[in-house]
Amino acid sequence: MKRSSLQTAALLLVPTLFVACFFMVPLIYAVGLSFGLPNFTAESYHHLVDSPVYRIVYLKTLKVALITTVTCLLLGYPTAYFVSRLHPRARATAVMLIALPFMLSVLVRNYVWMTMLQDTGVINRLLMNLGFTKEPVQLMYNQLGVTIAMVNMLVPYVIFPVLTSLMAIPPNLKVASASLGGNRLSTFLRVTLPLTATGTAAGALLTFIIALGFYITPAMLGGPREMMISSLIAFNVREVLNWPFAFSLATTLLGSTIVLYLAYRAVAPRGVVVKPI
Amino acid sequence: MTRVVSPSTSKGLATRTKELASGQGRSSIGAGAGADVKVDRIEKRFGSHVAVQPTSFEVPAGKLVTLVGPSGSGKTTILKMIAGFEEPSGGCVLISGVDVTHIPAHKRNLGFVFQQYALFPHLTVAENVAYALKMRRVSRAEIRTRVSETLNLVRLDGLGERYPSQLSGGQQQRVAMARAIVFRPPLLLMDEPMSALDKRLRDEMQYEIRNLQQKLGITTIAVTHDQSEALVMSDVIVVLDRGAIEQSGPPQQVYKHPRSEFVATFLGESNILKGTVAFHEGKPWLAAGGVRRVPLVESDGFRDGDVVAYVVRPESITVASEKRDDAVTFVGRVVDTTFTGDAVRLRIDLGWSEPIVAKVLSRHGISLFQSGEEVAVSWSLADGTSIRC
Predict the structure, then answer these.
(1) Nearest CA distance, B221 vs chain A (angstrom)
(2) Are the beta carbons of B183 and A190 separated by less than 8 Å?
C-alpha cells in the first residue's frame, strides 16, 4: 500500500523542523559569523592561513586521522572477516562485544586508557615486572597514546559496514570460484575483496571523518604537540573568546569533510546489485 | 586431451592428477573432451542422519547422466561430492581412472553450473567467463579468443560487456554454462540448471544444453527434480529416493519398465493396478477381487500368491467404443474427462480397481467420449510392467 504524499509530509514535518531550528540555523549562523557577520570580512581566514601554527595543527589533525583510519582498516577488516565466518550464535555474541564499548561514556573510556598507558599504568608495570624494560615506556601524552585510544573507539565503524557487506555475499560465489580453479587467496582477492569494497570504503570514510573531529581523546591522552583542530576550536571559543576565528576553523573542517565525501562519491565503486538467492 | 582422459596411458597417476588439476593437455572445444566417471560406494552421513547411502554408478565418456529424485533424495549431495564441495563419509570418485576423492575442489578442473548460476555480480559477462582462464594463467590474447568463442557457442555474442544483473534469466543461464565450459573441463556438473527459468524457456534450454553437450562431447552429470527434464536430456537416468538409487538406465527403459512403484509414479503418470499372482493353465495372471484380470509376462518368474503392482501408462491405453480382441481388454465407464490442450484425460472406472487414467489425443479439443459412457479399454501386453511388492 502506498501512503499518500500528504501523510508522508506530515510525518516528516516535525523532525525536519527540529533539525532546521536546532541544527541548520545555528550552523549557518556559525558559518556567517566566521565571515564577520553582519559585515563581510575574511579576516579570520587570513589569520588562519597566515599563521603557521594553524597550518601545523591542521596537518597534524589530518595525519592523526589518516593513521587512525589505516590502523582501523588493518585491524577491523580481519576482525569482520573472522566474525562473518562464525556460527550465527557466536557471531551474535561477537557483534554484541564489539558494540559494547559504545555503551560506555567516552570520558570513562579515556580514563581507562590513561590507567592502562600511563607511566605507572598496567602495561608499564607489567613490562617492568617482567624485566622487559627498566624505565617506563612513554605510551601516552604522545601520538602513540592518542592513536591507540582513537583506534579503540573507531574500529567498530570499520567492522560493522565490512561485516554487513561480507554477510551479503552469496556463499555460492566462493564455491563457484573454487570450481573455476580459484584457491582461497585468489578467491579472496577477486571475489570477496571487490564485493566488500563499498562497505570498506564507507567504513574508512566514516572513521576518517569522525577522527577529524576528535576532541576529548587528544586532549586527555595527547601531549601539547598532539593538539588537534577541535581542541583549537574549543580553546578559541572558551579561553580566547574569538568566536569568528573559532568558527572559521570549524567551517574549514566542515568544508574539508564535505570535499572528502564528494571525492569518495566520485571514485566509489559502483553499487553492485546482488540478486537475492 | 586423450593423454588426460585415457586410463590406459602409461603415465603415472601423479602426473595425470597434476594435468587434470592444471587443465593442461586438452584439445580445443568440440573434440570429445569427455572423461569417464566412476562413483564407487560413495556415502554421506551428517551425524546420525544418512544423506546418501553407499551408492555406485558409472558415467561413460561423453554421456549425459541425470540424477533425478525428490528433494531429500541425496542427488545434490552426490553431485557436490563429485565436485569436491562436500567430503564423502566413505567411498570414492574416479575421473578418468584417477581417484579425486581427496583432491580439493579448485584442483579438480570440473565445470559446475549452479542452481542460481552464482555469477560474479561485480564482473562483466566476459570477465565471468574469463575467470577460470585467469586462474589458469592463460595468456591475455588467448583468453580473449576463447571467451568470444565460448560466448558465440552459447549465443551471447555482443553481451560480453554487460553485467549479470543486466541480463534475463535465460541469458544468465547461458553465461553460467559458458563460464563452466570455457576451460574445457573433462566433466561438467549441473545442479538444477533450469529451476530458475520459466517453463517455456526451460523447454528451450533443455534442447540447447543437450545439443551443446553432444557437440562438445563433454561428459555431464546433471541433477534435477523435474522428471520431464531428465527424460528429455539424458543418455542415462539415475532415479534416487531417500539417499539410494531406485533404478538407473536409459530414459526409455526406465520409463517403460519401472522397477518400483516409486519410479513408476515419479517418472510420468502411471496407473497402478494392485493384485496377487494367480496361475491358470501354467501361466501367471494378475488377480484382483478373486478374479483373474491381466495376463503377466511369464519370464518375470512369478510365484503363486506374489503381491504385485501392475503398471500401465495412460498414453499406452486405447479407448474405443467396442471391444477389441488383440490385447488386454476391459469394459468400463467414463467417470470424467479433462481437456489438457494436446490431449484429453479420461478417468475410467473398471469396477475392480481405482479408476484408471487414459490419455487420448484430442481432435479440435473435442473428446470423443462423454462421462457416463460405456467404453472398451485396452492395451498391449508389452506396455504393462509388473512390480513385485
Answers:
(1) 15
(2) no
- Determine contact, residues B358/B317, Cβ cutoff 8 Å: yes
Cβ distance B7 to B61 under 8 Å?
A: no
How would DSSP label each residue in B2-24? HHHH-TT--S-HHHHHHHHHHT-
Q: Is the pLDDT of residue B294 over 90?
A: no
Residues in A closer than 8 angstroms to B136, CB to CB, are 181
Domain map (residue ranges) of chain B? 13-261, 269-388
Instruction: Quickly name the fold that domain B269-388 has.
Output: OB fold (Dihydrolipoamide Acetyltransferase, E2P) (2.40.50)
Q: Inspect the interface and report whether the beta carbons of A181 and B163 lie closer than 8 Å.
A: no
**3-state SS, residue A55:** helix
Name which CATH class applies to B13-261. alpha beta
Nearest to A171 by CA among B111, B188, B130, B115: B115
Residue A256 has pLDDT above 90, yes or no: no
In chain B, % of residues over pLDDT 90: 54
Q: What residues of chain B lie within 8 A of the CB of A195, using their CB?
A: 121-122
- The confidence score (pLDDT) of residue B146 equals 95
Instruction: Tell me which residue of B112, B95, B100 sits closest to B34, measured CA to CA.
Output: B95
Alpha-carbon B42 to chain mean position: 19
Q: Does residue B2 have a pLDDT over 50?
A: no
> Could you tell me the domains of chain A?
45-164+197-267 (1.10.3720.10)
Chain A interface includes B83 (CB < 8 A): yes
Q: Is B122 on the interface with A (CB under 8 A)?
A: yes
Question: What value does the mean pLDDT take over residues A181-203?
Answer: 93
Chain A contact set for B106 (CB, 8 A): 177-183
Which of B 232-271 lie inside 8 A of A, CB atoms?
none
How many interchain CB pairs under 8 A, A with B? 71
Task: Out of B104, B131, B164, name the one closest to residue A180 (CB).
Answer: B131
Q: Suggest the residue from A165, A172, A179 to mutate for an interface test with chain B (most B CBs closer than 10 A).
A: A179
Contacts of B147 (CB under 8 A, 6+ apart): B126, B129, B130, B133, B160, B182
Contact A209, A261 (CB under 8 A): yes
Q: Which residues of B touch A274 (CB under 8 A)?
A: 121
The conformation of residue A3, written as its DSSP 8-state character, comes to P
Question: Is the ipTM above a cut-off of 0.85?
Answer: no
Express each pLDDT in B325-339 by its tens digit: 766 888 899 999 888
The string of pLDDT tens digits covering residues A115-138 is 989 888 888 888 888 888 888 888
Which residues 6+ apart lie within 8 Å of B360 measured at CB?
B319, B343, B344, B346, B367, B368, B369
Could you report the per-residue pLDDT of B212-255, keeping only the tens digit for each?
999 999 999 999 988 888 998 999 999 999 999 999 999 999 99
CB atoms B110 and A179 under 8 Å = yes
User: A180, B183: Cβ pair inside 8 Å?
Assistant: yes
